[in-house]
What we know:
Two copies of one chain form a homodimer.
Chain A: H1 9-12, H2 35-60, E1 67-74, H3 80-86, E2 96-100, H4 106-109, H5 115-119, E3 127-131, H6 140-143, H7 149-152, H8 155-168, E4 171-179, H9 182-194, H10 204-209, H11 213-227, E5 234-238, H12 242-259, H13 271-280
Parallel strand pairs in A: 1-3, 1-4, 2-3, 4-5
Helix pairs in contact in A: 2-12
Amino acid sequence: MAKRLAVAASDALKADGLRIAELDTSGRPGFVGDKKAGTELLAKRALVLSDLQEKLYANGRSGDKRSVLLVLQGMDTAGKGGIVRHVIGSVDPQGVDHAAFGVPTPEEKRHHFLWRIRKALPRAGQLGVFDRSHYEDVLVVRVHNLVPSTEWEPRYDEINAFERELVDEGVTLVKVAMFVSLDEQKKRLAERLERPDKYWKFNAADIDERAFWPAYQAAYQTMLDRTSTAYAPWHVLPADHKWYSRLAVTELLIEALERLELDWPPATFDVEEQRRRLAQA
Amino acid sequence: MAKRLAVAASDALKADGLRIAELDTSGRPGFVGDKKAGTELLAKRALVLSDLQEKLYANGRSGDKRSVLLVLQGMDTAGKGGIVRHVIGSVDPQGVDHAAFGVPTPEEKRHHFLWRIRKALPRAGQLGVFDRSHYEDVLVVRVHNLVPSTEWEPRYDEINAFERELVDEGVTLVKVAMFVSLDEQKKRLAERLERPDKYWKFNAADIDERAFWPAYQAAYQTMLDRTSTAYAPWHVLPADHKWYSRLAVTELLIEALERLELDWPPATFDVEEQRRRLAQA
């Protein structure tokens, strides 16, 4: 059985030069094996992720300012929520800073588009997760002309500058754009209309959005072309197979955490002395 | 094998009339079975908890204002973090609002003691967790005379009024006070001094606090006597056995969620119509 992805997930999912119109959303780049093998592997790798996350947390509690931020983007039903539940759900909730970004509130609308984002950044030592993000402001906003192009056009550069700043402050960004096919989306929406325990997830507007698919594809393409940087690269995730998506994001997070070369924080006290004190207390 | 606790966890862990000085912290009230049986049962009950939490979340997304708030109190090493990791860790992180309360910041100190608590209350449909809480203000504050008694004494009544308000707003409070023996605490602190992967959890001040054990017991006793109300009762959890603590808190949360009689939110749209629309989209 595969011990891990055949190649590093970050290589397999590289966004550079990729045309998403040509993406095989049912692909499983970097992984050799079927659903069963993938699911078994995920269970094992989740433990590795959990250990690394605990080290990040431990260092955060010991003065290390670094953090990791998973940014999830994708059309409705792409499986962002499933990533949060099944990947982030495998680590200690104490170490997770989760934020979901919906339609901006009236208050948020009165501020710069990065205002609400800055407020939700992960604290030191935390694994942050953004379910949607600042990228909504060059995706849905662009597709529906919610602001004039003179306003959204400069945002690509603003986002790059913002992310440069985050990286300089010690935030490792793991940006993942999830793509399902139009057919797979139809299947997943249909399921929400078939199962009464899924009705609450259904939103009639999601059907309307399907008419804008080509516009979204173009917006996503520009996003990848203009905001996949060396310091904060995008990963393009074929997401028709949920088990594969979860495994791939787990691998991306493991890679990111391994690059931090975390160790357990050393004792900041005299261990022997404290043992003696404890023996008498 | 036991299918669940032999009696409802809320009955087994009732605080009313209980003298904590006489508590057997190695007890496992309400449960018949050993560690192996308890651990197996926990794995099953975690799935039940996760399903109920998803219903709470679904209803929250559909206009229901209710939420559940787990309040964890206990001396150092009592296992509060383990409850968060292993019990709350079994549900979807999207539905969890976690807050840990340490020494108040200078800003927090300038405000009423409930100020920081109110800011951290769970949103509608969320499972909130307080790792320490407003009760610190009648525990550590009282034991160390951080404010005069004329200031902390009225807090019991203030807390009761505050919690009454929360309950009226739809927050179900699950208050759990965890108790380990002085010996068990010594063992757990010793472990933090033996394992380099645990050094970061060690705090020399925790040893100093052991001298205040009787004062803490008295403060906990008064807390239970004065703030265990019909609308927000305390549960007293013998916590020497971590597996039992986790199982018991899981059961308390399941009970609390079951009392909400949650069902999947009904469709707010014409299902047939949406199916037709989707077929054509």
